[in-house]
Design goal:
248 residues; alpha/beta; Rossmann fold; two-stranded antiparallel sheet; 8 helices; globular
Length: 248
């Protein structure tokens, strides 16, 4: 009961920052393995805080996390919001990694983003000098599950609306069966039938799986103001983050 009260107080404090803009973000660039320059926004609250790497959904950009990253700072997390080559634009922020990949004739399908996600995780690990949390939205939630099971630089996975988006290129349920790290999974109520097999396959001893009884959002939009059930998503996520931070 005391823990629930703490979460509610923290949530109220965070919701008071809804109108805070992302002017504190610092833009950085670093190479992917094939030489494409990746653009990311850094929201660093305190060098000693854990790092979370934020990966956008399809047709999107690092701008997807403008408001979300500010709230995550309130949870004592540093954030890196990354442009992946499979994307386009969000909140009037153009995906610069996508633009460069298109200009050089490289693929921009969902699976093509995996190389960028790996590079971003490795970059964040070098900054943090410790394993990092990764958060995926829609197709990147599925790739986050895969990379979380494979990369030692990952300490925990947050997956909003993972699904079998890749056809024969990737069996997400099979990848999930290899994931043993702390994992948070969330989806909209109408997505649950697709998310259930993936969530159930994850073998983590610390796993939170949340879908509201009705409504909800797709991907990280679940955390945005105006989404049906936004507060419930945040309460569940805060509980998970508090657990992960104890292990940091």
């Amino acid at each position: 009961m005391m823990r629930f009260g703490f979460v509610c107080v923290l949530l109220i404090s965070m919701l008071g920052t809804l109108n805070v803009e992302a002017q504190t973000a610092r833009r950085v660039k670093f190479p992917s393995k094939d030489g494409v320059t990746i653009t990311a926004d850094m929201y660093e609250a305190n060098p000693d805080f854990p790092w979370i790497v934020l990966f956008h959904k399809a047709q999107s950009s690092r701008g997807e996390f403008q408001r979300i990253a500010v709230k995550l700072n309130k949870l004592e997390l540093n954030c890196m919001a990354v442009d992946l080559r499979s994307g386009k634009e969000a909140n009037f922020i153009v995906n610069e990694t996508y633009v460069l990949a298109k200009e050089t004739g490289l693929g921009t399908d969902y699976m093509d983003s995996e190389i960028d996600m790996k590079a971003a995780i490795e970059k964040a690990y070098l900054i943090a000098r410790k394993p990092v949390i990764i958060l995926g939205s829609s197709y990147t939630a599925s790739l986050a599950i895969k990379l979380g099971s494979e990369m030692s630089q990952v300490m925990a996975v947050v997956a909003f609306s993972p699904g079998e988006y890749f056809g024969k290129k990737l069996d997400v349920e099979k990848a999930a069966s290899s994931l043993t790290k702390p994992t948070f999974i969330a989806c909209g109520s109408d997505e649950k039938k697709y998310t259930d097999p993936i969530a159930n396959a994850i073998r983590s001893k610390k796993k939170i799986y949340f879908a509201p009884p009705k409504g909800g959002g797709h991907g990280a939009a679940s955390l945005e103001k105006g989404t049906d059930g936004e507060t419930d998503y945040w309460v569940q996520l805060i509980n998970f983050i508090q657990y992960v931070k104890k292990e940091y």
